């Protein structure tokens, strides 16, 4: 099935969405962490912490962090869950270089491996990881169904997937304020901070287009996940999705 989010691309060129997303994140990598903190007023840290807390009930020895970006979630997973190993993959070498530098400063280079990889064609064998995580990356998937099926494939028998994704508030008043902020203030701030003038217009477009709530849960279930549930956070501006193999 085709989803609206799959058609929303950073630059609107003839290149695949995957390639455009890679180019975009290479472009904005130096400003990415600053913009994340600024756009969410630092609440993105709380969202990641809540997601990690929800994973505590599972026996997790190995984790694949898809669309790992600059490594914030992978580093937090290492601190809080102490798994035997974490593999963080991303399309963007620019983002990965920052993640590796963070791991080096934290003195945990051997515990987390950051490497280039495509979520639609994972190089890992079936049943490799106890958990797969994705923070703010699912809306960038070129093919949602294939992405979820690949994540399911590499999970162990009782493995778990945890997705953190930005979402659109359902309350009309909150949604109006959110739309003003997302569609006007964020793109303006992005143009001031980043040389990529298109990237922070793509952000609110991709959030508005990505399947949310029950629709996202249905995609997960169709991919083969069971016991799927979601947890809206901060007036619905972010949602955590959990599914089990």
TrEMBL record:
Enzyme Commission numbers on file: 2.1.1.163
GO BP: menaquinone biosynthetic process; methylation
A Pfam cross-reference name: Ubie_methyltran
Gene3D superfamilies from the UniProt entry: Vaccinia Virus protein VP39
GO MF annotations in UniProt: demethylmenaquinone methyltransferase activity
CDD domains cross-referenced by the UniProt entry: AdoMet_MTases
Residues annotated for S-adenosyl-L-methionine binding in this entry: 70, 90, 118-119
Enzyme kind, highest EC tier: transferase
Pathway: Quinol/quinone metabolism; menaquinone biosynthesis; menaquinol from 1,4-dihydroxy-2-naphthoate: step 2/2
Keyword terms of this UniProt record: Menaquinone biosynthesis, Methyltransferase, S-adenosyl-L-methionine, Transferase
Recorded catalytic activity of this chain's protein: a 2-demethylmenaquinol + S-adenosyl-L-methionine = a menaquinol + S-adenosyl-L-homocysteine + H(+)
Family designation: Belongs to the class I-like SAM-binding methyltransferase superfamily. MenG/UbiE family.
Function: Methyltransferase required for the conversion of demethylmenaquinol (DMKH2) to menaquinol (MKH2).
Protein name as catalogued: Demethylmenaquinone methyltransferase
Organism: Candidatus Limisoma faecipullorum
Top-level taxonomy: Bacteria, Pseudomonadati, Bacteroidota, Bacteroidia, Bacteroidales
């Amino acid at each position: 099935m085709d989803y609206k989010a799959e058609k929303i691309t950073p630059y609107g060129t003839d290149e695949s969405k995957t390639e455009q997303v890679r180019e975009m994140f290479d472009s904005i990598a130096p400003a990415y962490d600053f913009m994340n903190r600024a756009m969410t007023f630092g609440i993105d840290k709380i969202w990641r912490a809540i997601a990690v807390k929800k994973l505590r009930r599972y026996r997790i020895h190995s984790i694949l962090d898809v669309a790992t970006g600059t490594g914030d979630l992978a580093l937090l997973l290492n601190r809080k869950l102490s798994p035997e190993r974490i593999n963080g993959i991303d399309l963007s070498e620019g983002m990965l270089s920052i993640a590796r530098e963070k791991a080096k400063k934290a003195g945990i280079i051997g515990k987390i491996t950051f490497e280039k990889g495509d979520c639609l064609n994972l190089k890992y064998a079936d049943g490799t990881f106890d958990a797969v995580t994705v923070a703010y990356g699912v809306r960038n998937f070129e093919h949602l169904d294939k992405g979820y099926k690949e994540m399911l494939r590499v999970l162990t028998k009782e493995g778990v997937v945890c997705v953190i994704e930005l979402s659109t508030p359902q309350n009309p008043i909150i949604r109006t304020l959110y739309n003003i902020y997302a569609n006007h203030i964020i793109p303006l701030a992005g143009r001031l901070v980043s040389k990529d003038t298109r990237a922070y217009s793509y952000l609110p477009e991709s959030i508005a287009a990505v399947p949310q709530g029950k629709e996202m849960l249905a995609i997960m279930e169709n991919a083969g996940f069971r016991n799927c549930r979601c947890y809206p956070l901060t007036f619905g501006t972010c949602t955590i999705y959990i599914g089990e193999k």
